[in-house]
Amino acid sequence: MANAFFSDLLATISERGRTLLRRGDSADAKRDADGLIELCDALLSGRGEASGTAIAREVLDIYRELDAAGRRVFFEGLVRDFGPDRERLSKAIEQWRAKPSDEDASSLHFASEPRRQELIRRLNRAPGGTGDLVNMRADLLGMMNGHTDLAALDRDVSHLLSSWFNRGFLVLRRIDWSTPANILEKIIRYEAVHEISDWDDLRRRIDPVDRRCYAFFHPAMVDEPLIFVEVALTETMPGAIAPLLAVDRQHLPIERARTAVFYSISNTQRGLGGISFGSFLIKQVVEELRRELPKLDTFVTLSPVPGFMAWVKQDKDLPLSDEDRELLKRLDEPKWFESPETAALLRSVLEPLAAYYFLKARTPKGRLIDSVARFHLGNGARLERINWLGDLSPKGLRESAGIMVNYLYRLDDIEKNHEAYANDGEVVASSAVKKLLKSEGRRLLDMRLS
Amino acid sequence: MANAFFSDLLATISERGRTLLRRGDSADAKRDADGLIELCDALLSGRGEASGTAIAREVLDIYRELDAAGRRVFFEGLVRDFGPDRERLSKAIEQWRAKPSDEDASSLHFASEPRRQELIRRLNRAPGGTGDLVNMRADLLGMMNGHTDLAALDRDVSHLLSSWFNRGFLVLRRIDWSTPANILEKIIRYEAVHEISDWDDLRRRIDPVDRRCYAFFHPAMVDEPLIFVEVALTETMPGAIAPLLAVDRQHLPIERARTAVFYSISNTQRGLGGISFGSFLIKQVVEELRRELPKLDTFVTLSPVPGFMAWVKQDKDLPLSDEDRELLKRLDEPKWFESPETAALLRSVLEPLAAYYFLKARTPKGRLIDSVARFHLGNGARLERINWLGDLSPKGLRESAGIMVNYLYRLDDIEKNHEAYANDGEVVASSAVKKLLKSEGRRLLDMRLS
Amino acid sequence: MANAFFSDLLATISERGRTLLRRGDSADAKRDADGLIELCDALLSGRGEASGTAIAREVLDIYRELDAAGRRVFFEGLVRDFGPDRERLSKAIEQWRAKPSDEDASSLHFASEPRRQELIRRLNRAPGGTGDLVNMRADLLGMMNGHTDLAALDRDVSHLLSSWFNRGFLVLRRIDWSTPANILEKIIRYEAVHEISDWDDLRRRIDPVDRRCYAFFHPAMVDEPLIFVEVALTETMPGAIAPLLAVDRQHLPIERARTAVFYSISNTQRGLGGISFGSFLIKQVVEELRRELPKLDTFVTLSPVPGFMAWVKQDKDLPLSDEDRELLKRLDEPKWFESPETAALLRSVLEPLAAYYFLKARTPKGRLIDSVARFHLGNGARLERINWLGDLSPKGLRESAGIMVNYLYRLDDIEKNHEAYANDGEVVASSAVKKLLKSEGRRLLDMRLS
Amino acid sequence: MANAFFSDLLATISERGRTLLRRGDSADAKRDADGLIELCDALLSGRGEASGTAIAREVLDIYRELDAAGRRVFFEGLVRDFGPDRERLSKAIEQWRAKPSDEDASSLHFASEPRRQELIRRLNRAPGGTGDLVNMRADLLGMMNGHTDLAALDRDVSHLLSSWFNRGFLVLRRIDWSTPANILEKIIRYEAVHEISDWDDLRRRIDPVDRRCYAFFHPAMVDEPLIFVEVALTETMPGAIAPLLAVDRQHLPIERARTAVFYSISNTQRGLGGISFGSFLIKQVVEELRRELPKLDTFVTLSPVPGFMAWVKQDKDLPLSDEDRELLKRLDEPKWFESPETAALLRSVLEPLAAYYFLKARTPKGRLIDSVARFHLGNGARLERINWLGDLSPKGLRESAGIMVNYLYRLDDIEKNHEAYANDGEVVASSAVKKLLKSEGRRLLDMRLS
């Protein structure tokens, strides 16, 4: 039974946000990006202090009405006109060089702060400002593609967003069928791993007793899930996605559940790109589930391998015989996986190759190739199992020839695994995965590897 | 009718906070400050990344068990061992000096960031961390008195707190008789202007139809009002505090209210010292009240003048005749204000002197002497009226010979007033106040002033 | 800003309800209706007193597992075995006959209460009991069709439900896009007037600024809207439904709205049949809207005329010429309304006929024929306008040849209108409607009427 | 994580209630009780149907302004003018006598219902009506003292209240230090067993980890706890109240708690007199505590014995020797309990006498004498222990010579115990209590008893 007084705090923010949205819609905003820069100057001046949040709100409203070109001009203005105070900075450097104390480094740090950081903080004062700034960064990222002139601005925006979206400010909420429709709508829209086709599909993922969904929210953007994870409760570790999503599957009586399967994690805010919540989300959901269902003993993902086939196709040094290469052409046969023989043959090549992909293959800079693998192994998970024919959707076939993997989260090993990976680049994997690499059927492969 | 889904977000935080508090109570924390520094190192390392929020929570729990000496040692460790990365900094300086572009200033800025800033951000990830950091800063401020060695640490802590307690994250809540007791208890405890003697006194200030109280809350510290203001709704601008607080006063039917009187503003968190919310609070409460009660047309304070008598006693250049000075000795007579003659004589000296205090007197550095005046005039209010015998409490008599003042908030003039004050040091005052300075009865005074 | 402590009260009920639902699902309930009757006996006995709510819960769980035949046997048992205490009743009658005082009538009243009333009250003690009893009555109504043997039981159940669903216990809630999906799903399912095709259609009805939806809830059934009304805010009184529901319509800026149009009212609980909330709902929504939007000055329905064409077809004494009757055959032409000539001709017959239908035609018992008209006129509304080609949907064409009507709710006239209707059977109508009856073009018709 | 949509439902009611209260304050209500009766007639007529809830609200507002005499006149009017419809009743009796079927009994039942029942139901439709009716019944009970003329009215009011305050509609809420002050204030005011002296005392009872307080609320009266119980969590069954309430007691770490002690149960609403919630409250709190703290294994009261000394003084047939009687005079000595000898002597008489009081003594009608005992034994508890010097407060000494008792709630035995008591008047007691009756030291007493 919670302390209900605070219940309304966020409801308050929520309402405020919505009111503003509507006001903004009808606001007259013919002024251009230059006028906007002037207004930003005013916001940083005494007038901004006095006006409370009105000027900040105005800046954000006008920004919203700008087209892409106008926004670009505005961003360039921020880069050009809102850098650090050079004079103050020069003095601080002189002081530091004269006597390089930590104290002076601190002065230097504050003296070198671009004025736009304070500008962004003041914009954030406006009701609904945080959400607007996140959207602004989404615009910014969209424009940076190949242009480094906006990088300094992005560094400042993302520095502040990263501070404000500190995990300590995020709130975990369960998403279920009694969640407001405006939130659920976003879950449908943002699911990035296994598309949600409609409201019925959504309901199958959040309403049954053996399904869970959790999201992080920020108190200043209460209508927006920031990241969410979909969880299936099962008896054992699953090897394929289709049975989990099947329309007519049997629900598992909750008392028989022993395994929690994280089968989809999606970020929702482009503007928060590069600010990572996923690791915290998984760990808190594990805690949440253990509290609610003490019988759960396995926490595992069922994950795609998005980079596998691209690597197979591009890499010229694959540890493959000509015969193997020939075999791989069968992947172009339609519905190859429906032929047991073809599938068996391909498996004998692709499973060891997948093990190699995870355990040995690296980018030129020595990084793991697979982004999903980097995420989970970086979080301290272990590569537990490679699942043949795990995802037979067009996307799954295209990206990974249907292969899926399980990453296992064992809380006691998380720090150790993470350090092995972070410090030594070591991929902690189950013996089953390692064995694939060395397996009898892959003698030749291994010979060539040595 | 608010969006109620989010109601629980903060309730969630609130519960979490409380659970942790209790766990903390019983935690075994024999480790000393040195161990704590090591743990901080771990938190900044990969281990910290992997462990989620556990190490952060541990650091804060152990800190809480330290005594004052231990805390000081810990702070010194943070100053000593968590400064910027000097090597990286030196490189950035060289780059800048070679070619002082804004881009490089940005590198310089991030390179000079003391490592403790990231440390503090990671501490904040712990559930309840924000509140703990605020308390930690309260400790820090208590130790800094005259010691500059901790100043760099404080600059970092307060920089981050200031960013996190951005007005955009604060939520305004009305405080009334249906507010949870744990919040109300803090209102009683923290009221700094006109002490609240007990729960009955509190109720008289928040429950009647013609009384209001509002506070700012932060979503990560939902049990803690950060600042609150007490408001009386009246027909006209009041000149004395006692009738507002009288036990047996008549309540004003709300439809007759035309004036909102801000008669007390109190900060509650020592650890947020120097981070100002007051201006935002007043402005938002004005908006809130105007929405609820469109007939209100005057928004005004009834404020103490805490520095007046100290100034009178210390300043040697008061514009006073010897006769005036002689008169002032009567302030030592007990209950002098009960004698109409004495009061009238004193008034003839003190009212003009108060006008002088506000309009002319300045500190050696040219600042206004009165802290309350600096606050309201800095917010863009206008000095509206000097009230003779406004506060006959011992404190009121001691500090200001019973004088109180009204500062008037007129939203249309706020920017203008603020700029006059901020740029030119001009105190915007009503003609009545200005006239006091020049008034007939003060001929001599004025002659001497000219 | 509401008192949030109570927020959780209903959340509590809600959770409880859901928990039980799930438990019930898996309950083993092989016992038959006879065992159920025994359990009911126990519930009425001392055991029931002592066990708290456990036996009540058990009865309801077992009932839920019964098939239709079992339920019927159970109901018959309730009729047979849980009537009044005859001995006590006889005594009370004797006393009354000896001396027919009000006091004795009271004894008689309580003595004649069937024991099942107390049984039903005790069943209601179970968590979730109220909802189960409402569902039980839905079953009962389904079985009563033509069988009077269950009528006594129904009288008792509906008597109690009617007392428990007293308007004082109902809570009005706005339904919008931030309403939980499990509620919205029921709005989609239960809409009985203009079907909601899917979630997008729903959203168009509740999310735009110029649309509203309100429902009554009962605190013991918080997941179930009991009745809801859909409202369009418009500039003027509309004459057709299609523009209100159009996919691509323009939203009306809310400040231009002057009219609130109740275009759909739907009951949701079959088990509450005969217990009327509609009148209260409309009146409270009118109040709610006037508070929120003071500029609204017209509150009106846009209603179907479900009985019109059936009446036209069945009634042999229609005031129609042979020529008119001939004309009516054109209604069988497909898309007749797309031919301006046909439509004009039909209008000349059907509009006056509709006026006659409302103002003159009556059932053999003298009642108004149209159920929707009985509802609104009984609530004190006035028949304001007959709208030609108001609803061109298949249902609208079939039921009323496309005619819709507006009923006007003018709060000041409600009592007067109601009494005119209730006491004298008078249909209060606008002069425009009355004039239709007498209109020039209908000379012949009128001649025949006189 | 609760379904938060419904959170606002009750908040809505709560606000509504408060608004009305204020409106009511200023309502002009000069009309007298006769006018009120006329208005009640209107409410029962068609006008009442049409007006929604306005007339009901008006009746309740005017009632509130009446003085005691006016209220009495009003009540008498309800008795006189709102009885059953005699004509309809006579017909129903004739039918029944002709053929006494259950069907006709049902008609008789509905025909004999006094018109005031429907009147009261309609009054309840007004916002805030339920609370007003409860207050009205409190007035009524106050006037009935010795007057039977209002009994019929009270029977109807209490019949309806009893139906509306059905346990299924009550909501259990924990009361703690984060509960709104307006609720807590009522806890202070209504505590009837061990007075709460002030807010500090209250806090000691609800805030520590080893204390709990729960109350039942009704959704239509959300500001009013109906009944509440205070619980202490302890290691073992306590024998005295003072240590539980001590200002400076040590809090018990919650993981060591094995026993939940219900040491105070208080009703708050005089107007709900005779409608019993206590049994449900205790049973649900037991369930609640078992869920939260699975280690709790003993649920027990620490109860006063309010009727004991009155019985000792009045009963002439006490099983006492002259010597014993002489001894009892020592109870008049001040602070007798501080003398070990006196106390020991008195104990040897009073403990067996208390056992006799519970196990053997009965009223002339054969009922248990002690009201608290009747309540708990009627609920199915067992008399577990008699505690010598359990309550040394003036009230405790006066009422029971300081004796307190424990009643034990063992859920498995509740039905059995209840039936033993209800059917056979048997007091289920521990062997320790029974032994007291027969104890060696009380040989003589027992001899005389036999």
Automatic annotation (TrEMBL), chains A, B, C, D:
Q: Which residues form the Malonyl-CoA decarboxylase N-terminal domain?
A: 82-165
Instruction: Cite the Malonyl-CoA decarboxylase C-terminal domain residue spans from the record.
Output: 168-409
Q: What is this protein called?
A: Malonyl-CoA decarboxylase
Q: Which domain of life is it from?
A: Bacteria
Which range is the signal sequence, renumbered to this chain? Answer: none
Check the record and name the Pfam families matching this protein. MCD, MCD_N
Give the lineage.
Bacteria, Pseudomonadati, Pseudomonadota, Alphaproteobacteria, Hyphomicrobiales
> Which InterPro entries does the entry mention?
Malonyl_CoA_deC, Malonyl_CoA_deC_C, Malonyl_CoA_deC_C_sf, MCD_N, MCD_N_sf
List residues traversing the bilayer: none
Q: Which organism is it from?
A: Bradyrhizobium diversitatis
Entries under Gene3D superfamilies matching the protein: Malonyl-CoA decarboxylase, catalytic domain, Malonyl-CoA decarboxylase, oligemerization domain
